[in-house]
Amino acid sequence: MSNIPAELKYIASHEWLRLEEDGTITVGITDHAQDLLGDVVFVELPDVGDILAVDDEISVVESVKAASDVYAPISGEVVAINEALEDDPEIINSDPYGEGWFFKIKPDNIADYEALMTAEEYENEL
Question: Does 75 score more than 80 pLDDT?
Fold first, then answer.
């Protein structure tokens, strides 16, 4: 079974979210997703300042096996991106919940975050 940290929230398309102390939300793909993709070779990230709506296609991850879209899990504004992924995308494979994060978003409504799947619910989806 994949590594599924209990403190995070999840969506069915295999993105994870972590609420930070400053109220922003960090987003990445799950261990399960990176395992399915295989060795990640390229990541296209959104731009800082992008305004996102739920389910917008906001990023692309390419691996030796496939390309996969990443969707906005909540609405809000992108306030930071993980520029390290541009030069070293394989960080996603080695540390999907840490250094392999994709972007940070300032949510329009924090209640949207609270309504997302828990680790247990996500594990049941798998």
Answer: yes
